[in-house]
Amino acid sequence: MRSLIVVPLCLMAACSGGEEKKAEVVADTMRAGQWETTVDVASFRSTDKATPALKAAAGDKSTILACIEEGDAKKPKPELFAGEGYECDYKSSYIRKGRINASLECKRDALKGQIMMTVQGKYSADSFEATVDTLSYLPGEGDFEMSSKITGRRTGDTCTAEGEGGAGNAAAGNKAG
């Protein structure tokens, strides 16, 4: 009777090729250091049929350098996810176990009103990718809706002067009008 039980177990091991599948390692936090973030605008439109207060278009791309300081590894400065030209605060955030789920309230020079962003994505210790959906609430005309794909990669242990404080060294794109 024992040999009947052992044979099916051996067959199961042979069927799977005898290889063990390795579990994907999920980082608890994003690593401190210098990060390069690229924002790709996927869609952009007016929500009030007026000329949008922000000049942007699908296909616009910008790159910034950002710094995650040692004490901020569990909750990086929100500008890491917002992109160039935004000053933001977290309204809610879950950034752990490889997942990014956050809502941001942002401001931008030359725009009066609120700009709300939701960030959904995933990360490893040295990279991340997310979708950022943006909606403006401006007092006058010019409200807009934008969806962007954002990717980031850790480029070093030490932050450069341009990357300290959350953002800097922008390459292109998204200018307030």
Task: Describe what this molecule looks like in 3D.
- The chain has helices spanning 2-15, 79-82, and strands at 33-46, 54-55, 61-68, 86-96, 99-108, 111-123, 127-137, 144-156, 175-176.
- A hairpin with a 2-residue loop joins strand 4 and strand 5.
- The protein is mainly beta.
- It has a single domain, classed as Lipocalin (Beta Barrel).
- It has a seven-stranded antiparallel sheet.
- The longest helix is centred in the N-terminal third of the chain and has 14 residues, at 2-15.
- Residues 6-13, 18-22 and 163-177 have low confidence and may be disordered.
- The termini are far apart.
- It contains two helices and nine strands.
What attributes does this structure have?
177 residues; mainly beta; Lipocalin; seven-stranded antiparallel sheet; 2 helices; 47% strand; disordered C terminus
Structural class given helices, strands, pairing? mainly beta
Radius of gyration: 22 Å
Major β-sheet profile? 7 strands, antiparallel
Name the shape in a single word.
Answer: elongated
Number of helices: 2
List low-confidence stretches.
6-13, 18-22, 163-177
List the strand order in the largest sheet. Answer: 3-1-8-7-6-5-4
Indicate how many domains the architecture comprises: 1
Q: What is the element string, with H for helices and E for strands?
A: HEEEHEEEEEE
CATH class: Mainly Beta
The total strand number stands at: 9
Q: What fraction strand?
A: over 45%
Mean pLDDT across all amino acids: 83
What is the second-level CATH architecture? Answer: Beta Barrel
Helix content: 10-25%
Indicate the CATH topology: Lipocalin
CA-CA gap between termini = 80 Å
